[in-house]
Structures
1.
Amino acid sequence: EAQVTQNPRYLITVTGKKLTVTCSQNMNHEYMSWYRQDPGLGLRQIYYSMNVEATDKGDVPEGYKVSRKEKRNFPLILESPSPNQTSLYFCASSPGQSSNSPLHFGNGTRLTVT
Amino acid sequence: GDSVTQMEGPVTLSEEAFLTINCTYTATGYPSLFWYVQYPGEGLQLLLKATKADDKGSNKGFEATYRKETTSFHLEKGSVQVSDSAVYFCALSDIRSSGSARQLTFGSGTQLTVLP
């Protein structure tokens, strides 16, 4: 089944403790992206990647890192989480760069930073 | 920059009622427009899309027409069901002004509840 898989689904951590949220897609998609969803704000893009070893900042990249060493994986790294990073995170992918291509989303990771 | 303004929710309707969720956008280029739906505990799923002016996207009884003159992409359904209860997001996809990468801009989402 074609899908985007995120792990974990739920994560509670403390300020300053490094964490990684994994994302994997099995559709051979070139484009991958991370979003955070906050009430009243919709989804905001954190980072995106157009292909292996090609990543770039989205609209709210502060406090996050990503890597794209393989086409299928696009982990999101929080080196020193803070409470304002408490949010619902989504990974998404699409076949290419065209603005026509819809995104395929994972089921989300709900992160709480205390 | 690009922006999407979506009708504030929540919206509560009775089964078989007519649904309209308003969406207007601002864009510098020639964007593609999407409606995504998010069911509880799940990620967003594509509902429909339109890639150029006057295109009509449709799926599962939902429709939206890309209106360039009014910069709108309103979502409609003639008769909603309880199973349509979800959060609906309007989105615009364009090419970033800084280069060739795509940029997807979302509205804030509209919660729809359909009562039996």
2.
Amino acid sequence: GAGVSQSPRYKVAKRGQDVALRCDPISGHVSLFWYQQALGQGPEFLTYFQNEAQLDKSGLPSDRFFAERPEGSVSTLKIQRTQQEDSAVYLCASSLGGAYEKLFFGSGTQLSVL
Amino acid sequence: SQKIEQNSEALNIQEGKTATLTCNYTNYSPAYLQWYRQDPGRGPVFLLLIRENEKEKRKERLKVTFDTTLKQSLFHITASQPADSATYLCALEGNGQNFVFGPGTRLSVLP
């Protein structure tokens, strides 16, 4: 497709369950970002990839959060043993990767942990 | 500590007026700053980028200014329309290569 695609669109998990969120960036985009957005707040940075290399994971809130992009295209954000405070919208964005590049966002995955 | 603030959580203006949104930052030295629009249930959409050596940037009814001395960017929408109602986010380069977003301002343009 022409844009960034995220799946699932909605995910309901029971506390303690593991979840995996998928992001298909725009073809050819080198950089990929994951953000977490709480209701009424701006997106909070989680992690950044350049091709398959995870260059910055400083925003991951705990070691329960793990992201990968093994072939430099599709990325997966995994959350283990989900907690209620993990409930948020998880946004994926991609860019061509040069300086001053704009981000193209997907519509996000809304995660609800019960 | 590092911080990005946007003037108000919500802003209501009358159709046809100019909306002015503010983005202030502390303890960042960005080479550029971006503005995004976000509609409910959607991801942010890029609007404008302004570099540190540019004072002003325009695109149709949108205008952005960037004052690195005041550490502030202003975002203007002239001749506002109800379709401009959305949340507007400023973003700047953080430490490393990530982008840091402000909390957003929810703009409502009333007919």
